[in-house]
Amino acid sequence: MNEVIIMVIGLFLLSIISGMLGLGVAFAAIPFLGLFLPDLVNQVQPLSLLLNGVTALFAVFGFAKSGYVDWKKAIYLTIVATLAAPVGAWLVHYVPQIYVWFLYFGAVFFLAYRLFKPVKHTEGQQENFKLALILAIPISVLAGFMGVGPGFILMPTLILVGFEPKKAAGITAFAVIAPSFSSLIPHLATAQWDLILMIPLLIAGAIGSFAGARITSLFMPSGRMKQMFAVMILIVTFYKIFTLIA
């Protein structure tokens, strides 16, 4: 099968699952695209950031149709994350790529732990949004450094500070759109674009993320979807570790 077709199909499936959580696809796309593209900083990260912004945007459409987007809080988070994310994207140009991968692997295992660990949410539980805003600053810097949107840590963080999972997913989807594009700015001068690959990936990501958001909004329990996402990113990440040491 043609390599581009494999990448489009894989990205489509990852976008469905990431759309279910409102994360944007970059956190799963980084190791997946890394299987096919050799340059992390100049190929994988710029493409992943672009895909992250587009998939998060279409996930917002899916969650908004069911009323799961708190627009006011999402806008505040967007402002904080957008200002902080480019700092990490700038730093990555001065750090060897192998250290970026180590940071990525550490973050993905933390994410998997948080996604698997049950989080109790009781009716009337207080949402600590001020704490979420404070935590969004280091989260966004870290995300920009790794070339992903901040949603992969922001979404579990919102749940931990009291947000209902589907509402957390809707807010996260909106909040990661602008930071994804702002993190892309430091990469523009050195990014290597392949339009033949980029355009079908963007289309597949948009359709998949919207479908994923609608599935979660209408049918799927949040806990089960979180565990499925954790399993998929761990599988792809372990394979990437194997390719790095092989």
Describe this structure in words.
The protein has 246 residues and is mostly helical. It contains 11 helices and no strands. The chain is globular.
Topology overview:
Layout: H1 3-21, H2 26-34, H3 40-64, H4 71-91, H5 97-116, H6 129-146, H7 151-160, H8 165-175, H9 177-184, H10 195-218, H11 222-245
Shape: globular
Most strands sheet? none
Number of helices: 11
Radius of gyration, CA atoms, in whole angstroms: 16 Å
Low-confidence stretches: none
Element-by-element helix/strand order? HHHHHHHHHHH
Which class best fits the helix and strand makeup? mainly alpha
Determine the strand fraction and express it as a percent band.
under 5%
Mean pLDDT across all residues, rounded? 85
Compact description:
The chain contains 11 helices and no strands. It has 246 residues and is mainly alpha-helical.
